[in-house]
Specification:
single chain, about 325 residues, alpha+beta, three-stranded antiparallel sheet, 12 helices, about 35% helix, binds zinc ion
Length: about 325
């Protein structure tokens, strides 16, 4: 699907593979509900056949889904299974869930995360597996990058020019409005990534990302409206944009994205992003820990309680 053939950092490749908000919702359903057939996604997400077919093709080309034949209605069809690399995205999806639940107001509740090992409805906190410490926040780390341009071409070869925000489903399971706004738009994602690299000034974002001024000011304004950036004046020198607490709290999502990108999408030399855990001085290996029992979360030991979108009166644990 990506035929440009130009060197691109691992993050850029990962973002291309992840696609847009439809692709993220397709993957989310595959995780949460084990959705694997065309008609199931179409009915769940109210997607048109052509949009769904296009996204499935791209997810297959990007190595996130693999087609597998089955017999249905008298003929052989394909269902789509998560690949190994896609299955590793579970931490990324849990981090998104956790951030949205904490920071984004919503009409209904999100499904509860259940840690089967301790039985609690719980939340997850980020830790550094290199040293075992939890919690680790953005402030406990520094993000470095190599000399080569990490963000070259990230947003140039977009597959889908328009986001389809308005048409995204509004049911509680799909309702991740701010995350989809950030991750469903590649410029927004890389602007946020640059902010974690401590880029703060308009001109610095522009030269770092090669983004058009109109796009940049639009996204910076939107991030300010969402309370992710706060804009402040520097006497006589224009503005700078800093991450708020809400913006900094998106760090686990960023950390898992960087970690996943680097395991599965190697870019040209010197284009990597490295998150260093300041306390141990090592490149951070992110992991999630249960806030209730403090054990590391393992994919096979968690699930989302999909009845929990209507808040249970008495939670277990
Ligand atoms: Zn550490
Ligand atoms: Zn637990």
């Amino acid at each position: 699907m990506d035929t440009a053939g130009e060197p691109r950092g691992g993050i850029g490749q990962a973002l291309l593979a992840l696609g847009d908000q439809w692709s993220l919702l397709i993957l989310q359903r595959a995780f949460l509900k084990h959705t694997r057939r065309f008609a199931e996604w179409r009915d769940e997400l109210a997607m048109s056949d052509s949009v769904l077919a296009g996204r499935l093709r791209e997810l297959v080309a990007g190595g996130l889904l693999e087609p597998s034949p089955y017999r249905g209605e008298g003929r052989t069809r394909s269902e789509y299974l998560l690949t190994d690399r896609a299955r590793e995205l579970w931490t990324f999806l849990v981090a998104i869930w956790s951030w949205e639940r904490t920071w984004v107001e919503r009409p209904g509740g999100l499904p509860d995360l259940v840690h089967e090992r301790c039985g609690a409805r719980t939340d997850a906190e980020l830790g550094c597996a290199a040293c075992g410490k939890t919690p680790v926040t953005a402030r406990d780390t520094r993000t470095e990058r190599g000399a080569a341009n990490t963000f070259s071409d990230v947003a140039v070869h977009r597959l889908h020019r328009r986001t389809v925000r308005e048409r995204a489903p509004r049911d509680p399971l799909s309702y991740f409005p701010e995350t989809l706004e950030i991750l469903g738009d590649r410029w927004s994602t890389v602007i946020l990534a640059a902010a974690f690299l401590r880029v703060r000034r308009f001109a610095a974002f522009q030269s770092e990302l090669g983004v058009a001024p109109s796009i940049l000011s639009n996204r910076l304004r939107r991030f300010s409206e969402l309370g992710i950036f706060v804009q402040s004046d520097i006497a006589g020198k224009g503005h700078e944009y800093r991450l708020t607490d809400k913006g900094l709290a998106f760090f686990p999502v960023f950390a898992f994205l960087v970690d996943w990108a680097q395991r599965w999408h190697s870019g040209p030399p010197q284009s990597e992003i490295t998150i260093v855990h300041t306390a141990c001085g090592k490149p951070m290996i992110p992991f999630l820990r249960c806030l209730n029992c403090h054990e590391p979360l393992v994919r096979d030991e968690i699930h989302f309680d999909l009845t929990g979108t209507v808040r249970p009166g008495a939670a277990t644990g």
